[in-house]
Amino acid sequence: METSNLDRLRKRVAKAPDSPGVYRWLDKDGHVLYVGKAKNLKKRMKHYVQAAKKHSAWTGIMVRQIHDFDVTIVNNELEALMLETNLIKELKPKFNILMKDDKNYVYLKITMNDTFPRIDIVRRLEDDPASSASGRPRGASSALYFGPKTSAYELKETLAFLRSLFPFRNCRMGIELAMSDERRAMKGDSQSSKLKAQSFSKASSVSSLPLEVVCRDRDRPTPCVDYHIKQCLAPCIGIVTPEQYRLQAIDGVVAFFQGKYQQAEQILSARMQDAAREKKFERAAKFRDQLERLKRTQERQLISDTSGANTDTIGVSLLSGRSFVVLLREREGRLIAEESFALQGVAENLSEILGQFIPLYYSSTDDLPETVVVGEVPADRGAVEKWLSDIRGKRVKLHVPERGKKSKLLLLAEKNAESKAMQSEAKWEAETRRTEEALKELQNLLKLPDLPKRIEGYDISHLSGIHTVGSMVVFLNGKPKREHYRSFNIRSVEGKVDDYRSLAEVLRRRLKYLTEDFGDSKKSWEERGIEFGKARKAEQKVIEKTSKAHSDEIGTDVIDYRNYIVARHDKEIVGFCRLFQYPGKVQTIRSLWIKKDWRGGKLGHTLIRTLLRRFTKGKIYVHISDEALLEYYMELGFQPVRTPLPVLQKKLDIWAKAHPGRPAGMILVYIVAQQKTDDSFSEKPDLILIDGGKGQLNAATAVLKEFKLDIPAIGLAKREEEIFVPPSPPAPPPRGEGRKVTSAEYSYGPLKVPQDSAARFLLQRVRDEAHRFANFKREGRAKKSSLHSALDEISGIGDA
């Protein structure tokens, strides 16, 4: 942060309120860098902008980026804590301590507000309608959640095991009891299941069964096969009451995830004994193995006593600026689970980590204990304890132990956190070392001037010439940078199989961003004596005469010099084009003409860009009569239109009628909103990798030459995994000596690379990822196209 900006912010902070609240530091683009809470906003924010204040390296980086701030005043510290937690989860500021992306964690969700609760695995907590059935007075949630869990696979395996003991339903239907005054109205998909249930009524001895139920959003026949194999109680046909269903199917699952395994043990033991009595020894052995596995789960608990304590113990480790947390869950005196988290961002001390981790974690779980054991208390301990207590509905306290069992548990958690931090550091160092070795080997192999830190991989995917898609994947420092992936719908060869031309289109549309700087282009032409500007009144007749001489190309209708922009050389017009508005404010670019002597340098591109820069939103159209011009306009950002607007379709019809025997051409559109600066396209690659052999590589190098770009390009063929490089001119012979240049020196011959080469493996990863991404995008395009009907093209049919 520059001194002048620091002085400006210091003056503004001096006028900040003294109230409790939340502050947000913003960068020059208005993006939130950091969210914090404070009992006194002014006092806390002064900490960042004091001139003589020496910050840590991480905070110093943030302070230098601060350009502005925003504050929200609240009534007390508790409200500040709640608002801060919500804002951090929503905005994910890069300088806050964050749990990894929510998508990395899963939760077990039990819909306790449903008449017949459903059990799901979800990626995030949701705000459901309030209900006292949740088992916890959370206020905004009626579902019961367990988590976050780090492995979806393990959670699915656990549920599959539990379902054999507690036959809960696996469908997504809404199953409700039918009201007596609704029974006559229940028809179709939501009709009563009473008749069907009668044949299954023997399953219950309750006189009120079968019940009349309503199944909404039916996703399978009822009852489904799960009922027949005793994996579901079939509430969909009314043979179980809501109370029976919860008792037999739901309560056991809830108890299991709370660490109470007794019911599961009793069921397995009884089933094993029954099977043994019936001499079904294989079935008995299966139950025996499940029972032993369950007992081993309990034996793995490190500490067990009769205290009945419910605690969470949080151990924290700081290593190389990265934070790791291990949480040990103790229920009824037994240590039942361990959760570990690698946090994003950098903190200055353990208190700061805990102050941000505790609200983030406990706002994402339904299992709160009576005591949270920590090594240090957060600065705002009182507010955190009150917030946790309000969520649980009972008192929750933060405890720093000095001796006894809790102290030992804390040491154990901290030891585990330190171990995981060291393992992560070692793994990161090993991966970094392998990647650096592969990049250096690749640099030496290809004789590159610099380390290929940014590698872009390209591939083409199509289905017999239709739905052709090009992919661009990016590897930065040997790792995928998925936010920089891009895909291209190919229009120039639709219906044809032409990988070379498709690849050329993709590269033109990508590489143009490295060369199309409008200011540089205009300056280059001005250095050659070209002057750009609006047409003058005196030039009206020159434009009319030129248009008439080239009427087949640019037309002669409605010529008004005020709509034209021209390029002049020594006061002579050497090029022009114009804007033309059709009824309905349909903007088009028309009448592009370049004098023959000045063609080939894309002077027309500069003229068109001059017109396009007038627009900040909307769409601009152009009609091309020759398909050869498609690539010319696509380089500018135009794309073909599948169904032209009626006024433009009329123009096509008129043109075709006036030029019998010639194709009508096509309409292209330039969408201003899609032309914003692209972070990926603005970066220049150190190496381009093409999925293919000599032919594909030749197409790529031709485009690079066309754009006058000196970017190394290679091809990697699938069949033999050969690496092809473009030919380069041979080194000149010593003075006075002559030698004959062999054709091999100009060939695309493959490089000789060891099979176990790290550089080869890296290139294969890039190539395979480009292939996967291209196929993924092509399949998506084909699926979308399958939903399209020819009737959609007819005006008046479809949505009103």
* CA-based shape: globular
Number of helices: 22
How many discrete structural domains? 5
What's the gyration radius in Å?
A: 35 Å
Q: Note the beta-strand portion.
A: 15-25%
How would you describe what is shown here?
The chain is of the alpha+beta class. Helices cover about 35% and strands about 20% of the residues. The protein is built from 22 helices and 28 strands. Strands 14, 15, 16, 17, 25, 26, 27 and 28 form an 8-stranded mixed beta sheet that branches. α4 crosses α12 and α13 packs across α22. The longest helix has about 45 residues. The protein is globular, with a radius of gyration of 35 Å. The two termini are about 55 Å apart.
List the helices and strands and how they pair.
Layout (H helix, E strand, L loop, with lengths): L2 H11 L7 E6 L5 E7 L2 H9 L7 H9 L2 E6 L3 H15 L14 E5 L8 E4 L21 E6 L2 H12 L10 E4 L16 H5 L14 E4 L8 H4 L13 H16 L4 H16 L3 H19 L11 E9 L2 E10 L2 E10 L6 H13 L8 E3 L7 H12 L4 E3 L4 H43 L7 E10 L2 E11 L2 E2 L5 E4 L9 H13 L6 H10 L2 E5 L5 H10 L1 H4 L9 E6 L2 E11 L3 E9 L8 H10 L6 E6 L5 H5 L4 E2 L5 H13 L7 E6 L15 E5 L2 H13 L6 E4 L6 E2 L25 E2 L6 H29 L14
Helix pairs in contact: 1-2, 4-12, 9-10, 11-12, 13-22, 14-21, 15-18
